[in-house]
Write a structure and sequence with these properties.
80% of the residues lie in helices and 0% in strands. The protein is mainly α and 212 residues long. The chain folds into two domains: 103 residues, Methane Monooxygenase Hydroxylase, Chain G, domain 1; 96 residues, Alpha Horseshoe (Serine Threonine Protein Phosphatase 5, Tetratricopeptide repeat). Helix 6 runs antiparallel to helix 7. The termini are far apart. The N terminus is likely disordered.
Length: 212
């Protein structure tokens, strides 16, 4: 009887082994495939993250350049941000590209005389394009070194830009050349943002401060 039991077990094993082997082989075949799929998914996710980060970095740098007035450089980075995975950011980048194009397509100003540079500089001061205004006022002063009205405009330009020392020097020169510029500056609302600085007060109200 023990022998028969042994034979019976052997027969059962014989019947079950192929099925077990098939299940094992099937599982073994599936595991590498699933592992490959997981690896592929991870790689795709990593690539997507890299693209999103690159888009964000390009867009943020482009915005900084845009606000700094470097429109050509900003446009190149906005173009890189257009094709990223974030569609809303890409659309925003396209809008900024158009703004860059409008600023880059401004007509070239052909100015020849000191008065033309002065007038254009004043227009730029009023538009608060202070860097451009200063460039044209400097040209006007090179052409007419004793033009008090140009020094007056330069003082305003410097003051609005936060350069109080520069505003003082130019306003002092304007007043030395034409004393009436002192009264004009007192009444000029554009000087209001920086007229309270001690240096400017010395020029506007010398009797109060004891300055000459």
């Amino acid at each position: 009887m023990p022998l028969k039991k042994k034979t019976t077990v052997a027969k059962n094993l014989g019947k079950s082994d192929p099925e077990s082997i098939m299940k094992f082989e099937t599982t073994a075949r599936r595991r590498p495939a699933n592992a490959a799929q997981d690896a592929g998914g991870s790689a795709e996710a990593a690539e997507a993250r890299n693209q999103a980060q690159a888009q964000l970095k390009a867009f943020e740098n482009a915005v900084r350049l845009f606000h700094a007035g470097q429109f050509s450089e900003a446009r190149d980075l906005f173009a890189k941000a257009v094709g990223g995975p974030n569609r809303e950011m890409g659309h925003n980048a396209e809008l900024h590209i158009r703004m860059c194009d409008r600023r880059l397509q401004r007509p070239i100003v052909d100015l020849k005389t000191a008065e033309e540079h002065y007038n254009y500089g004043v227009a730029m001061v009023n538009a608060r394009n202070l860097a451009i205004a200063q460039q044209h006022l400097e040209v006007a002063l090179k052409m007419e070194p004793d033009a008090d009205h140009v020094f007056y405009a330069m003082a305003l330009c410097k003051g609005l830009a936060g350069d109080i020392d520069g505003a003082y020097e130019n306003l002092k020169r304007a007043i030395d050349l034409e004393p009436r510029n002192r009264i004009a500056a007192r009444q000029d609302a554009d000087f209001g943002g920086f007229a309270s600085y001690p240096l400017i007060q010395q020029l506007l109200f010398p009797d109060r401060t004891g300055a000459a």
